[in-house]
Structure to design on (444 residues):
């Protein structure tokens, strides 16, 4: 609108001066050539028409810039893409489904939006989704007095806080929806244990093809089959069997609370229901989290699936601190495990672009070594790092990451829990952390 007003004023100013110049010249030259008046009048009409069309062209280009940016993001492979704006702010929403690393994908989206052009004299916000649920926002505020926004990656603020933008953005119609699109993800699974005297390690290697479908906002179906490839663990691990099978629902509540509910079969031969939540404080380095589960035993023997009634209650309550300088997450949690024993667990995880490496220590009731145990764990992000969908044709791709946990104390019974959702790994739990995303924007 500012462009339109400026051009309109310019057009009126030129029209007025051309008219005065035309009138004066005509009076001076009327006696010399009567055709001059027609010539000058035609010249004035051409100038005014040209400036009027230029005004309309500017209005068209300004109004369409957001839509053209959305089309460019869709072409890059982003899903659930849309935009809206008011007098103060333009808002884009998008979901990274094209790049394996969230920091890389978000950086590519920022580059595209800057290249297509930021709004004039108003702020811009990017809300990043995961399965249609808002996770973080990136916010750019232009410097007052600058007529053109010349932003760079370092100028964007990253936060869990969406302000009031999501209330407006959630109503817009998005392009390239992720709903009902199928991914066939192959998870490699490698386990080793040191229990046989005559052998350093016994090894188990499986491939776990998994169907993942987004059913509705925050809702996902997961169906997994475990296929043994190499087995030294014993006869019970030789059969093809089910892995994760069930539904999960993620929601975002006010005050930066993220909650996930899951029902189905989980790891560690469990089935049942699980509810987890995490809250990030105003100082987003600090968080508190909790989890509660009610499960029974689930096992596959002699080609039959056998389950016990739901009767085991497990829970977790703890807090965390993220150290932005080193992209390191610290957590301290009190927990109740699968045999009813209670304990304390400390975790430290450092996040890199392609890997996450962590250590843990535990103090658990009834466990050996006076209840102490510990070890390390790691996750490596797997290639390819860029991929796109072709409409609703199912994608076949490897899992986002591969990892292992080393149990230094070799405790086999106490301090055991389960994982309720496939994305709950140390490589993924901080992929939307604002400090980690900001470091990716600055360093790559």
């Amino acid at each position: 609108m500012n462009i339109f007003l400026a051009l309109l004023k310019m057009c009126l100013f030129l029209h007025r001066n051309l008219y005065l110049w035309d009138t004066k010249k005509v009076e001076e030259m009327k006696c010399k050539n009567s055709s001059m008046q027609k010539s000058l009048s035609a010249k004035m009409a051409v100038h005014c028409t040209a400036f009027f069309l230029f005004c309309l062209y500017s209005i068209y280009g300004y109004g369409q810039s957001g839509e053209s940016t959305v089309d460019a993001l869709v072409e890059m492979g982003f899903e659930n893409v849309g935009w809206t704006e008011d007098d103060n702010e333009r808002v884009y929403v998008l979901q990274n489904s094209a790049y394996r690393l969230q920091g890389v994908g978000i950086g590519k989206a920022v580059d595209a939006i800057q290249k297509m052009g930021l709004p004039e004299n108003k702020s811009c916000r990017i809300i990043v989704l995961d399965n249609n649920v808002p996770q973080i926002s990136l916010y750019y505020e232009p410097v007052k007095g600058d007529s053109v926004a010349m932003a760079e990656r370092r100028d964007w603020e990253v936060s869990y806080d969406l302000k009031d933008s999501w209330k407006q953005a959630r109503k817009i119609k998005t392009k390239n929806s992720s709903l009902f699109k199928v991914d066939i993800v192959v998870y490699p699974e490698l386990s080793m244990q040191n229990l046989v005297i005559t052998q350093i390690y016994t090894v188990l290697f499986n491939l776990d093809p998994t169907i993942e479908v987004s059913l509705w906002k925050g809702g996902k179906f997961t169906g997994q089959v475990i296929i043994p490839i190499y087995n030294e663990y014993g006869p019970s691990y030789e059969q093809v069997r089910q892995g994760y099978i069930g539904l999960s629902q993620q929601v975002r509540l006010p005050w930066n609370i993220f909650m996930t509910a899951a029902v189905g079969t989980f790891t560690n031969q469990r089935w049942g229901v699980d509810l987890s939540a995490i809250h990030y404080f105003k100082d987003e380095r600090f968080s508190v989290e909790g989890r509660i589960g009610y499960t029974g035993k689930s096992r596959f023997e002699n080609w039959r699936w056998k389950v016990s009634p739901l009767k085991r209650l497990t829970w977790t309550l703890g807090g965390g601190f993220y150290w932005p300088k080193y992209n390191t997450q610290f957590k301290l949690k009190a927990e109740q495990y699968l045999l009813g024993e209670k304990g304390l667990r400390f975790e430290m995880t450092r996040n890199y672009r392609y890997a996450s490496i962590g250590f843990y220590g535990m103090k658990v009731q009834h466990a050996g070594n006076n209840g102490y145990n510990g070890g390390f764990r790691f996750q490596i992000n797997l290639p390819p790092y860029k991929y796109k969908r072709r409409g609703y044709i199912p994608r076949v791709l490897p899992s986002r990451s591969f990892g292992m946990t080393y149990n230094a104390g070799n405790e086999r019974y106490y301090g055991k829990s389960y994982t309720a959702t496939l994305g709950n790994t140390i490589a993924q739990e901080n992929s939307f952390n604002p400090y980690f995303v900001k470091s990716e924007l600055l360093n790559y």
Notes: The two ends are 36 Å apart (CA to CA).
